[in-house]
Design a protein that fits this description.
The protein is mainly β. It contains no helices and 15 strands. The strands form four sheets. The chain has a five-stranded mixed β-sheet, with no helix packed on it. Strands 3-4-5-6 form a four-stranded antiparallel β-sheet, with no helix packed on it. A four-stranded antiparallel β-sheet has the order 12-13-14-15, with no helix packed on it. The protein is globular, with a radius of gyration of 17 Å.
């Protein structure tokens, strides 16, 4: 049994909704690789603008992605498969309800890609995973997880997301790209090549 301790000293600080600053301990079966919070949707946390408050957290493991409630006590509420078991980073894009991962292209690959998991709420751990070949999510198939790989020119080194604009920044060794998500489509809006940057 593995334990995840969430407090101010970690990457993602957590507090309960009554400003109790005790650490939250999550017991999970497998080693956690990385995690990402889901912003709180409760109106009564507006007064706590001095801290980051959230109710749930994604935890990526070698055996899938887990969603945990944190309050009033930690409990697993959902889990779904990932395309690769080697997830390096995970984010949640709230406006589109997308899970965004930076992961190995396959379990045996050293190439790193960014993938978008669209209908993750509708599937379970044993569900089939389907690669979406276009930049549009159909979200019509039952018990089939749709995954879109953002087509960058080489292995990804870093990613970041913006909740307000629904944009994803992706860095490789030779490029910096900004991708926008609008109406269930993914569009490249900025592409900076290393050769175009001068001192």
């Amino acid at each position: 049994m593995q334990q995840v301790l969430l407090n101010r000293t970690k990457v993602y600080p957590t507090f309960d909704l009554w400003k109790n600053k005790r650490p939250t301990i999550i017991n999970i079966e497998h080693e956690p690789l990385c995690m990402a919070p889901l912003p709180s949707t409760h109106s009564y946390v507006d007064d706590l603008d001095d801290i980051d408050v959230f109710d749930q957290v994604f935890i990526a493991t070698h055996y899938g992605i887990l969603l945990y409630n944190l309050f009033p006590e930690s409990e697993e509420v959902h889990r779904f498969p990932s395309k690769s078991s080697r997830i390096l980073d995970i984010c949640y894009l709230a406006p589109q309800d997308l899970v965004v991962t930076m992961e190995r292209e396959s379990d045996n690959s050293e190439i790193v890609v960014v993938r978008l998991y669209s209908n993750w709420r509708d599937v379970k751990l044993g569900s089939e995973i389907v690669d979406v070949s276009s930049s549009y999510f159909s979200q019509e198939k039952d018990d089939v997880l749709e995954v879109y790989k953002i087509p960058v020119p080489s292995s990804v080194t870093l990613m970041s997301i913006c909740q307000e604009s629904s944009r994803i920044a992706i860095c490789t060794h030779s490029t910096v790209q900004i991708w926008a998500i609008k109406n269930d489509s993914v569009e490249l809006i900025l592409d900076i090549q290393q050769s175009e940057i001068s001192e």
